[in-house]
Amino acid sequence: MKEVRERLAEALKKAVDRLPAELREGFSGQVAVVPSAKKEFGDFTSNLALKLARKNHPASEVAGFLKQALLEEHLDFLDRVEEKSGFLNFFLKKQTRAELIRTILTSPETFGSCSLGAGKKVLLEFVSANPTGPLTIAHGRQAAFGEALARILTFAGYQVTREYYHNDAGRQIRLLGQSLKARYEQLHGKDTPVPEDGYHGHYLIDLARKIKSVPEDQPDFFEKFAVEEISRSIREDLARFGVTFDSYISEQTFHQQGEVQATLRDLEKAGCLYQAEGATWFRSTSFGDDKDRVLVKGDGSLTYLAPDIAYHRYKIVRGYDLIIDILGPDHHGYVPRLKAAVAALGFPQEKIHIIIVQLTTLFRGQEKLRMSTRAGEFISLRQLMDEVGPDAAKFFFIFRRAESHLDFDLKLAKTQSLENPVYYLQYAHVRLLHLQQFAAQQGFSQQECLQADLSLLQEKEEESLIKQLGDFPGVIERISQTLEVHQLAEYLLALARFFHSWYQHHRVVNQQRALTLARLALVQALQVVFARAMQLLNISVPDRM
User: pTM, whole model, 2 decimals?
Assistant: First the structure.
């Protein structure tokens, strides 16, 4: 279908040449042909007429000109063209749609991919949990979203670097060390309280039990021990979750190597800093922020924003074309500050995308589970994986728009039935494999399927399935532009529903050999797209259940 879209776009460009000069003057040279949102609007649609329309040349008139020019081209894949409210809707011949199956079977590794990224370098930072405790379900949602986005962007031609930023310096690390020391001393009979604003979770008691002795010449021993152990645990959980990183960056290194001070000097040279009330301020309002921000307090200590700006300076100097930050909801106010910072450092604001992943509320059926991170009462990502498994956790996290609050039903996620969307998808894939295995036992070969007469696929369910398969490349392109991963999860569930409906109504392996071969070709194409989409979402692809 990608080739068909490209041919349509080229035909429309030629059609523009036949328009009156005043309409051609407004043509940018770019033509958008996208999959239609509804079946009644055909297979593809274009808003070119709306873009070219003028006061004395309404969109419907322009669309009529373009339509006539296309018809005179006698495009062999096109059944008809319709104009609707200024849009041009394209209906393909059934045989054209059916040939899509052969395209999938002859290029299973690349079908759906695109060159939208064209080798552009993307830095994708996500999770970046402070090494002060176990990964929470909030981190899990960010991890699921970030890994899926990285895979989809790679499939779309981008060179993606996954990066994890360790906030392993500052006040929170000192509090962590003090909290671990208190737990260690409590285990050894001392009545040492955990700091009121420290870390009260029971995980520090388990951590304290691992300490055999405390070196007298290492005053920061508890801080280092806690950071190393918790960081190791975080990496283990992420690996089990199917998430790995290409690069780990430590905040400490920015302090040790003087990068924070160098960043402050750069901002000062650019005229973006000033002194007031004994503090050093960043003139962020000059770059769209609602108020200026303190970078250095009156006592000489740095705010959290200073090393964060240094980190983004480091991102910029490495030459990335696009920077994506995936942050939790507690960073919502950080968005204008970071955008202001990168603009002050000379990086175009439109090249940094900050995605806020909202919180998740856990339910067990109708029961809402109450959690308090401050009190150390929360369900960790590890506990969630133990209860529902990594696949269910990832799919439930991805299925809703990242910016939307998520209600996660543990009971549903554990259900081994078609009500569970993950089970529903994996069951569909296994059924597709079993159909092929059964067909092989009956003497049908994959090679025969490649030569099948695909024009025999004329049932309405088959038309719907083929159209849905043809939408796959468009879904990948849209996500690459909007960064909305949930669209692939929605697409995959819709594909599963179409498949199950078709399977219930029509027998694949039947008494008509030619029809059986055509349907088996469709089954093989479905299995290719199913496996690819699930792999992009980082969901395992089982061969039995």
Answer: 0.90
